[in-house]
Amino acid sequence: MNHERFALVITFVVLASLAGCGSPPTRDSAPRSTSVPSRLPGNAVPREEPRSRYGNGPFYKVYGETYEVLDSSYGYQERGVASWYGKKFHGRMTSSQEPYDMYAMTAAHKSLPLPTYVRVRNLKNNRSIVVRVNDRGPFVDNRLIDLSYSAALKLDMVKDGTSLVEVTAISFDDPGPATRNPAPVARAAPVKPKAEPEANIFVQVGAFGDVSNARRRHELLRKGGISPAFVHEDRSTSPTLYRVRIGPIADVIQYDTIVAELRKLGITDSHLVTE
């Protein structure tokens, strides 16, 4: 939540128009309790929509970093850190030139086409929501998606400000050779928020068919002072895979620290897994 949101107008060329560009991030806040609707909105209802005339690149630049917009949302699924934005940006224009409504079920993402519907699942409590991505961001290191206030409230992450999540596109796109996304996953159907016992979350930093390679990776982590790390023998696959994992991860602060330490060791390819 401690970061700046921007309304971007992105042209076909590499261009980004930022509100308050270069200003330091300032703290956002939740609305006053007296102004919060008595009932939160339901999930966004996925429907096929034309691409927005704004915010779809194919490239744009923010703070000197160039971002590329995906050709398609088909098959997109990723795990990472969600944050949220609220009162400070209520009523401002989003990247798609729609007014931001902190009470609507919307979100910001750096690379998904605008608009895209996604399912967001809180990996800690398994609550799940569907939101419509109509904005760009969050432009903070190691952050995957920025949720509206209502969306964050339904995932029970407003108090903490961030949470570890899984984001799955609900795509109306057809697969094709131009798709640059990961391997296809089934088109997601809207689901109701559901609370279940907290899951254990781990950072996986390699899956090896040879146990000696897994042990070498584990030793690299040990010498780098990264713990608790272990080798998980996965016999559900054929042949057996030896997965090197760190955790369980308690919160986003611990996750951010681990990611930073992994980068010092030259390890940039890691992802979150749950058990």
Task: Describe the 3D structure.
- With 275 residues, the chain is of the alpha+beta class.
- It folds into two domains: 138 residues, Barwin-like endoglucanases, CATH 2.40.40; 74 residues, 2-Layer Sandwich (Alpha-Beta Plaits), CATH 3.30.70.
- Strands 3-7-4-6-5-8 form a six-stranded mixed β-barrel. The protein has a four-stranded antiparallel sheet with strand order 10-11-9-12, with helices on one face.
- Strand 5 and strand 6 form a beta hairpin.
- The N terminus is likely disordered.
The CATH homologous superfamily of the largest domain is named RlpA-like domain
CATH topology of the largest domain: Barwin-like endoglucanases
Strand order of the largest sheet: 3-7-4-6-5-8
- Taken in chain order, the helices and strands follow as EEEEEEEHEEHEEHE
- Sheet bearing the most strands, described? 6 strands, mixed, barrel
Specify the structural class.
Answer: alpha+beta
Low-confidence stretches: 1-27, 178-195
Number of H/I helices = 3
Q: Mean pLDDT, rounded to whole units?
A: 84
The CATH class of the largest domain: Mainly Beta
Q: How large a portion of the residues is in β-strands, by DSSP E?
A: 25-35%
Shape summary: globular
Distance from first to last alpha carbon: 27 Å
User: What is the name of the CATH architecture of the largest domain?
Assistant: Beta Barrel
